[in-house]
Prior knowledge:
The structure holds two protein chains of two kinds. Chain A is α+β, with helices and mostly antiparallel strands.
Amino acid sequence: xxxxxxxxxxxxxxxxxxLLSPSAHIEYWREQRHTELGFxxxxxxxxAGLGWLALPVPEEAGGLxxxxxxxALLNIALGRALAIEPYASTAVLAAHILDGAxxxxxxxxLLGEIISGTLxxxxxxxxxxxxxxxxAAATLATRSGDGFTLSGAKMMVLxxxxxxxxxxxxxxxxxxxxxxFLVDADAAGVCARAYPLIDGTRAADIDFTxxxxxxxxxxxxxxxxxxxLEEAIARADIAQMxxxxxxxxACLKICGDYVKERKQFGVAIGSFQAIQHIMADMFIAxxxxxxxxxxxIANSRRSPEERTAxxxxxxxxxxxxxxxxxxxxxxxxGGYGLTDEYAxxxxxRRLMALEKQYGDLYAHTERFGRHVLA
Amino acid sequence: xxxxxxxxxxAFRKEIRQFIAxxxxxxxxxxxRTKAANNAYVPDLLKWMGILNEHGRAVPHWPxxxxxxDWTPQQLFVFNEELxxxxxxxxxxxxxxxxxxxxxxxxxxxxxxxxxPMIRKGATMWAQGFSEPGSGSDLASLRTAAELVGGKxxxxxxxxxxxxxxxxxxxxxxxRTDKTxxxxxxxxxxxxKMDTPGITVRQIPQINGEAHLCEVFLDNVEVPADQLVGExxxxxxxxxxxxxxxxxxxxxxxxxxxxxxRAKEIAKGEMRGGRRIADDPAFRARFARAEADLLALEWSVxxxxxxxxxxxxxxxxxxxxxxxxxxxxxxxxxxxxxxxGAKALRYYEPGWDEPVASSEWPDYVAGRTTIAxxxxxxxxxxxxxxxxxxxxxxxxxxx
Lengths: 374, 399
């Protein structure tokens, strides 16, 4: 157990510092939310140029083979800068599934495109009214001829806006486990209704109506498919929680500065004990959140049961902390906290979005409670 | 950064677990497990210190030259965790974790030779005389005075909340030796034998039926001048040193882990309406939250132990341990009480005798409320939660 940053980690954070200048990110955010993708392709290309998109990919698959610690540190920086690029969904989640694809050649070719920044892939897994923590799907893939036909409805596919391909989870008729299928976003039988989320990211509800897929579309199936999906989401969980930690730490900085500048009754509001105690509570919550990210990372290399329990426990602490920090962050800003101009309202929206994806606080509390009191 | 668990530490844990199982007397363990009292039975505690000392492990956190084990902070963490998990009596922390480090860091050779072996062997309990009736959170305003008269300090004043003073042979006190300087500069650190003429100890009946906390009255108490630790006027600095030296102790992480396990045992053992408390969704959610928070606290402790560099001062990270640790202690004791429901209302005379257990009244019932009641002190002593938050805000944000 070593908390000191390695040389590579230090370089990574320095490059993040340079690209994601904190002073510019709100302006960037405000401009990009009216565009089609919600982010600038040129900046995504810079992510690629800095090797960030290669970081999570194993060396033998042409990536940099970064550890989860490396990935988490970069995502803390992304969260701090309110980056809304589809890093977790493409570079972490989809990349892991492609790396585990049954057809190794196919997977590696697609990974190459991800690494170069030319391909974004979104996971279409969540279904209306489904258990957000389940790795099974009701969407049905039926074998037909050499390939499959796919039918079903997916809901709130995260980062669908920029994805030219989708990884769709489906039950394969008559088979156990979960099939993972690679589908072109504009294929026949695929109908997407896109919408923005409160944090500026782009999601879509996607219906599949007898979409015809070649046999090669199946990346994984059976229990292997289910396990691969579970592992990939677990890695995306770490990336997202790291972004939440980064966002909370940004809130501490923003609010710490604000309560020293903002004057009422002739003095800085930070001189009031009521404000000091709110700030102390925010610090404690953010600190505990980072600790819990570490716990989740440390346990990610243990048994699947330990990994799952640690992830849910971390989701609880980080989800609650994100709410406490961002809500109090608005409170200390007074009315300005509710304006689009002040960064705190952007962090509030981002933290709320991060808390509810891949299983919300309630789902993780329920799962972890059952685990510890079994 | 590499957060992987160290396999060598797992091996160390196994060794420690076996070591404790081999030497912890069964009767002492049983009393510690089922006691209807907040603190360990004093004779058990002292005997246990003696046993650990025979094996060279009574004060593993001290420097080797004074009897320490040269373990890493992570090994010390495991050692303490295993002691609590095994229901070994708690240390007399005043001696082993407060006075000891102050003596070996600032004390004269005479004090080291005289008192360090006493602490190590468990020869006596130590009373900590810091707070006064008018000086709680504002400790620097303390007024108990020590005046140097003919090679002796003559002490007059009053201390309060002096834990275990009725059972302590010795105590360490903060006293004012100079009234002419800034309050913090005029305080000295003085070791006093509790049977010195002029000392009166009065036990304070507590909310839970115990009387562990005491008032200590000092009336012309004569103390040899060589029992003043270090330099006169440096007492405040030493007191701050010991708090900083023991930054992770205030988390009570080991205690809380043990007690959360007991809360789990109760929740699984208690039935209401044909269902285990553990299966009640509202209880389960609260328990899940406490367990997750405790895991986070454990990592926060590990981060401080490893002196992780962050953009905030380390002292701010240490303050988190005290605030969150004390809140969690209280939440865990209340989880136990709430899992027991109305059974928690039964009053048990404080003591260490094995409770008379039955299927309706398992042996985990006695002691829970006794401890939960006095545990309201966790967010008060050692700097109240509100004072801690003031300090934290200043450290982290400069406000």
